[in-house]
Amino acid sequence: MQTLSVELPERQYPIHIGPGLLERGELLTPHIAGRQVMIVTNETVAPRYLERLKAGLADYTVAEVILPDGEATKTLASVERIWDALLAHGFNRRCTLIALGGGVIGDMTGYAAACYQRGVAFIQVPTTLLAQVDSSVGGKTGVNHPRGKNMIGAFWQPKVVINDTATLATLPARELSAGLAEVIKYGLIRDEAFLGWLETNMSRLRALDDEALSHAVRRSCELKAEVVVADETEQGVRAHLNLGHTFGHAIEAAMGYGSWLHGEAVGAGMVMAAALSARLGWISETALQRTERIIAAAGLPRHAPAGVEAERLLELMRLDKKVLDDRLRLVLLQALGRACVTDEVADTQVRELLVGWPRQ
Ligand SMILES: NC(=O)c1ccc[n+]([C@@H]2O[C@H](COP(=O)([O-])OP(=O)(O)OC[C@H]3O[C@@H](n4cnc5c(N)ncnc54)[C@H](O)[C@@H]3O)[C@@H](O)[C@H]2O)c1
Ligand SMILES: O=C(O)C(=O)C[C@@H](O)[C@H](O)[C@H](O)COP(=O)(O)O
Ligand SMILES: [Zn+2]
């Protein structure tokens, strides 16, 4: 097992990484407040992993909420189901919520914990690659609104993150690719050497090679933790973690959440961001082609969805949380391994890119 520490100014929490950690109750128990534990998971993950997690919690009062699966369920109504269950079980403010599942479950459970009785403890036990490398770390929690992605939420950090890499063995290939999008993102925004490693090892990662996956999870968590520690509430550098997301979130919302996975939309969005960076002369054509190649090698799309007009995407992009004073603020690349935030790109340039972008 490897352990990293997220050293925030006023608190720290560990990220444990390794195979078979799910049953190791001793990793959870030091972080559980009180005796009441609510595990939140979904109908796909529960039959595979719920009993194994519960086995390590024999000394606690454990209740569970099993939600339906899918991005379309990342709503306030689902979070209300968690609050209803907490109240029905008489859980008090010393209870602990555990998120067992992908980013959808993690984001909703974290938000439920942030609000329940004005804030209770929560633990992340992520079971997708995307959740292990990104959503479980850093404390962004929340739900979607029909008008925009992650529009309702709170910053609420977990007490511990338990990354059991053995759970990735049951992940469908499409979900693995979605997780690889966020892994590639770290290389693109702040570590060109890691990007090179990913180029060399992409087929090992897609074949679920243990050693390669553990390295990718560890390096991604290190890079994410560095950014979160520097800027917990996204006043500055944390926005770099949004590379491709202004485009990607617009695609997800335009498609009604779920037909395109978050990682797929971000994969295409990162190619769009790289293309815009190349048009501005900030990165070379070669760097753009390298970006396109690695996105394709990860099994991710570079096209946009069919039937979604450029104007609709632009309208949704204008709802992005980074917009300030009515100006789009985009994360672009100054080099491979170096991101920046800019409000210097005119809507006409973005529209031109989207109009000409290949469709599915
Ligand atoms: N909070 C953050 O910082 C942050 C970062 C990135 C993404 N996100 C959010 O995360 C969500 C995407 O997360 P995701 O990609 O994990 O999607 P997800 O939570 O929908 O999980 C993907 C699918 O895999 C299934 N699954 C989970 N673990 C499995 C396993 N071990 N074996 C088999 N199937 C398994 C799930 O049931 C689901 O069908 C989006 O809502 C996105 O906005 C949040
Ligand atoms: O942790 C962050 O900060 C991120 O931006 C990580 C993203 O991968 C993630 O998708 C996040 O949920 C996006 O946040 P949002 O604030 O753009 O909704
Ligand atoms: Zn993301």
UniProtKB/TrEMBL annotation:
Q: Where is the 3-dehydroquinate synthase C-terminal domain?
A: 179-323
* SUPFAM superfamilies the UniProt entry points to: Dehydroquinate synthase-like
Q: What is its EC number?
A: 4.2.3.4
What's an example GO cellular component term for this entry? Answer: cytoplasm
Residues bound to Zn(2+) are 182, 245, 262
Q: Where in the cell is it found?
A: Cytoplasm
Q: Which residues form the 3-dehydroquinate synthase N-terminal domain?
A: 65-177
Q: Which Pfam families match?
A: DHQ_synthase, DHQS_C
Q: Which keywords does UniProt give here?
A: Amino-acid biosynthesis, Aromatic amino acid biosynthesis, Cobalt, Cytoplasm, Lyase, Metal-binding, NAD, Nucleotide-binding, Zinc
A molecular function (GO) term: nucleotide binding
Query: What start-end ranges are recorded for coiled-coil regions in this protein?
Result: none
Q: In which pathway does it act?
A: Metabolic intermediate biosynthesis; chorismate biosynthesis; chorismate from D-erythrose 4-phosphate and phosphoenolpyruvate: step 2/7
Q: Which GO terms describe its biological process?
A: amino acid biosynthetic process; aromatic amino acid family biosynthetic process; chorismate biosynthetic process
Which reaction is the catalytic activity of this chain? Answer: 7-phospho-2-dehydro-3-deoxy-D-arabino-heptonate = 3-dehydroquinate + phosphate
Name what cofactor the protein needs.
Co(2+); Zn(2+); NAD(+)
Q: Per UniProt, where does NAD(+) bind? A: 69-74, 103-107, 127-128, 140, 149, 167-170
Cofactor binding comment, as recorded = Binds 1 divalent metal cation per subunit. Can use either Co(2+) or Zn(2+).
Q: Which domain of life is it from?
A: Bacteria
State the NCBIfam families in the record: aroB
The record's comment on protein family reads: Belongs to the sugar phosphate cyclases superfamily. Dehydroquinate synthase family.
Q: What function is annotated for this protein?
A: Catalyzes the conversion of 3-deoxy-D-arabino-heptulosonate 7-phosphate (DAHP) to dehydroquinate (DHQ).
Q: What is this protein called?
A: 3-dehydroquinate synthase
What is the species of this protein? Kushneria sinocarnis
